[in-house]
Design brief:
Number of strands: 24
Low-confidence stretches: 349-364
Radius of gyration: 26 Å
Helix content: 25-40%
Strand content: 15-25%
Length: about 575
C-alpha cells in the first residue's frame, strides 16, 4: 500500500523482494518502493506476502526497508481499508491517523529488547465486562457522581471503565478506550492507576511526546493484555486479542475527525467491532438518537440506569427578571454553608441574552459578568471562573462559587453542594441538527458533578428536553427524537454525504448519486463552484461511496491548466458530516 493521498494510487501494488531483503520485508513493515513515473521512490506499507503474483510483466524490486518493525498490524490494515471504503476515502489517509510517526531510537530499543510476558491480572468479577468479552454490543449509562480514587476525585464513569478494563484484562484480553478530550483521559488514567490493571495502561494520545506515543504503539503490538486509552485515534490501536472497545460520550463533537476521510470514533468502533468480534460498550451520560437507533434495530442492547443520580429541579425564570430565581438563590445560599456550588453558563462570546423589562434592549450575560453578580450577591465567598482561558480540573473543598462555561466545569471533592444550570434557553437556540441532544448532554454532565444528595436547578427551560433531564430518562427522549427524525428523513435515520468543487463535477456526481439511491437535500453556490448535500438509506452506503470514489478518480485524473492559469477547485467529498447545512 503506497503512502499517497491520490485516489488513483489507492490500491495494492505487487513488488519483488530482493534476496538481500528477504528477512527484513515482513507484513507491517515500512518500505521504499520505485514508481514507474520519472524514477520516483515512494513510501509504502507491506500488507501481505505471496509466492506468486497475477500482475503482468516483471515486478519492480523493493528499494529498501525503512524499518523491519511490523508497526502496521494486520487488523489495523483491515480496519483502515474498511474505513476508507465506507467514506470514499484513501486508506493511506487513515493509516496516518492509525500509526504514529516513526521514532527511530525508540524503535531500535524496542527491537533489541526482550519481550516480557505480562503478569496475570486478578480483578473482581464484573457483569458488564463478562458480557463484553463474549462479543456483546451494549449501550449503558454510568455512575452519576464523582468518586474518590487514591485521594483524587474523578467522574464515576472513569471508575466504571477502569473496573471493566481490569476484568477484561483478567480474562487475558485487551481493552481499547476512546474518550473525547484530555480532561477525560486524565480522569481515566487516574482511575486505572490505582487498580489491578495499572501496569497494563498504554496512553496513545497526542499529549504524549512523539517518542512516548510511538513506544506505546510498539508495546501494543506485543502479546497482551493491554488497556489502551486515548482520544479519536485510539480506536485504531493494534490489539491482536481484543476483548472490548469502550467509547465514552460517543456523541461529543470531539469524536468527529477533522481530517479526511472524516470517520468519527463511533463509526470506526462499529466497524472494528464487526471485524474483530470484540465487545463494544457505548457509555454516555445521556442516550443519543444515533445509539437509540442501534438499540431499536437490536444491534445494540440496553444496560441499566445511571447510579447515584442527583435530583433535578425545573426552576422557572423569576418574574422580576432576576438572573437567578429566588428558589435557586436560596438553594445556593444553603449549599454554600456546606461547600462549593457550580453555576454553568453558555460559552464566552455566545452568552445568554435577557431582557430586564418589556421593550428594553437585551443585555449580554457571560461568565465574567455572572461571576461579578454572584460575588456581589454573596460577599466574602470566593468566585472561580472556569472557561477556555481559565482551566481548572479540580477546585478546592469549602464554600466557593464556580462559574463555568459548558464543558469546562471542574470537579469538586465529594461533589458540588448545588448545581445551577443557567442560559439553557439560549443554548437551545444554537443552530444545529443535534442541539437538543447536545444540551441534554451538557446539562447532564454538569449535574453528575453534584454530590449525591445535592439539588440541581435547571433555570428557564421547559418542555420535553427539560423533563428528560429531571427524570433521567434520556433513552425515552432519544426515542422521540429518533421518531421525529425518521419522519423528516434526517440523520441518524439516513446517512448524508457532502460534495464541494467545480459545478460540472459536482453536478455529474449528484446525477450518479441519484442512480445509487441518494437524493439531493441542499445546494449552495460557492465562489468557485458549489456545495451539495445528499441523503441516502444506510443500506445504499456501499454504492454511494463507490460512485463518489469513481468521481474522485475521474476528477483527479483530469488535465490541469498550465501556469500562470490558476488551478481549478478540487472535488472533495465528506460522508456523514456532523453539521451538514
Amino acid at each position: 500500500m503506497l503512502d499517497s493521498p491520490l485516489p488513483r494510487l489507492d490500491h495494492l501494488f505487487d513488488y519483488r523482494i530482493p534476496d538481500e531483503l528477504a528477512d527484513e520485508v515482513v507484513v507491517g513493515a515500512r518500505v521504499k518502493v520505485p514508481l514507474r513515473v520519472a524514477g520516483r521512490v515512494a513510501d509504502g506499507w507491506v500488507v501481505g506476502l505471496a509466492d506468486t503474483t497475477d500482475a503482468p510483466g516483471e515486478l519492480s524490486p523493493v528499494d529498501r526497508v525503512v524499518s523491519a518493525a511490523p508497526v502496521l498490524a494486520p487488523e489495523v490494515w483491515r480496519l483502515a481499508r474498511a474505513v476508507a471504503d465506507r467514506s470514499a476515502g484513501v486508506a493511506s489517509d487513515v493509516l496516518r491517523l492509525a500509526v504514529p510517526k516513526r521514532q527511530a531510537k525508540a524503535e531500535q530499543r524496542w527491537l533489541a529488547a526482550e519481550r516480557a510476558v505480562p503478569a496475570a491480572v486478578e480483578a473482581p468479577e464484573d457483569d458488564l465486562a463478562a458480557a463484553l468479552v463474549t462479543g456483546r454490543r451494549i449501550a449503558a449509562l454510568p455512575t452519576a457522581h464523582v468518586v474518590e480514587v487514591a485521594g483524587a476525585w474523578v467522574g464515576g464513569w472513569a471508575t466504571d471503565v477502569a473496573a471493566i478494563a481490569a476484568a477484561v484484562a483478567a480474562a487475558g484480553r485487551t481493552t481499547i478506550v476512546a474518550v473525547p478530550d484530555r480532561r477525560d483521559l486524565d480522569q481515566l488514567e487516574t482511575a486505572l492507576a490505582s487498580g489491578p490493571a495499572a501496569a497494563l495502561v498504554l496512553r496513545v494520545d497526542a499529549s504524549r511526546t512523539p517518542s512516548a506515543r510511538y513506544r506505546a504503539h510498539l508495546t501494543a503490538l506485543e502479546p497482551g493484555p493491554h488497556v489502551i486509552i486515548g482520544n479519536r485515534s485510539a480506536v485504531y490501536a493494534p490489539a491482536a486479542v481484543l476483548g472490548a472497545i469502550v467509547v465514552w460520550e460517543e456523541a461529543d463533537p470531539f469524536h468527529q475527525e477533522p481530517l479526511a476521510p472524516y470517520a468519527g470514533t463511533r463509526d470506526v468502533a462499529l466497524l472494528r467491532q464487526e471485524q474483530s468480534g470484540a465487545g463494544l460498550l457505548l457509555l454516555s451520560s445521556t442516550r443519543s438518537s444515533t445509539v437509540q437507533r442501534l438499540v431499536e434495530l437490536r444491534w445494540c442492547e440496553e444496560w441499566g440506569a445511571p447510579r447515584g443520580r442527583p435530583d433535578v429541579v425545573l426552576t422557572p425564570e423569576d418574574d422580576r427578571g432576576a438572573r437567578i430565581p429566588s428558589a435557586a438563590f436560596q438553594a445556593v445560599h444553603r449549599a454554600l454553608l456546606a461547600g462549593p456550588v457550580l453555576v454553568q453558563v453558555s460559552r464566552p462570546g455566545d452568552a445568554a441574552l435577557r431582557a430586564l423589562r418589556a421593550g428594553e434592549a437585551p443585555i449580554p450575560i457571560d461568565a465574567g459578568r455572572t461571576a461579578h453578580e454572584l460575588g456581589r450577591a454573596f460577599p466574602g465567598v470566593p468566585v472561580v471562573i472556569a472557561d477556555g482561558e481559565h482551566v481548572h480540573d479540580v477546585v478546592a473543598a469549602g464554600p466557593r462559587l464556580v462559574v463555568a462555561t459548558r464543558g469546562a466545569e471542574p470537579r469538586a471533592p465529594g461533589g458540588y453542594r448545588a448545581v445551577l444550570l443557567l442560559d439553557g434557553a439560549r443554548m437551545l437556540l444554537r443552530e444545529s441538527l443535534w442541539v437538543a441532544e447536545d444540551c441534554l448532554r451538557w446539562w447532564s454532565t454538569a449535574a453528575m458533578l453534584a454530590a449525591p444528595d445535592a439539588p440541581v436547578h435547571l433555570v428557564g427551560v421547559g418542555g420535553d428536553v427539560a423533563t428528560a433531564l429531571a427524570t433521567w430518562r434520556s433513552a425515552d427522549f432519544a426515542a422521540r427524537q429518533l421518531a421525529d427524525r425518521r419522519e423528516l428523513r434526517f440523520p441518524p435515520t439516513v446517512r448524508l454525504a457532502a460534495a464541494t468543487g467545480p459545478v460540472r463535477a459536482v453536478e455529474e456526481l449528484v446525477d450518479a448519486w441519484a442512480g445509487a439511491g441518494a437524493d439531493l437535500l441542499s445546494r449552495v453556490p460557492e465562489q468557485r463552484g458549489e456545495r451539495v448535500v445528499v441523503r441516502f438509506p444506510a443500506g445504499a452506503g456501499r454504492g454511494v461511496a463507490a460512485v463518489a470514489k469513481e468521481a474522485l478518480l475521474r476528477h483527479g485524473s483530469a488535465r490541469r491548466p498550465k501556469p500562470p492559469a490558476p488551478p481549478p477547485p478540487v472535488l472533495r467529498v465528506h460522508f456523514d458530516p456532523h453539521e451538514p447545512l
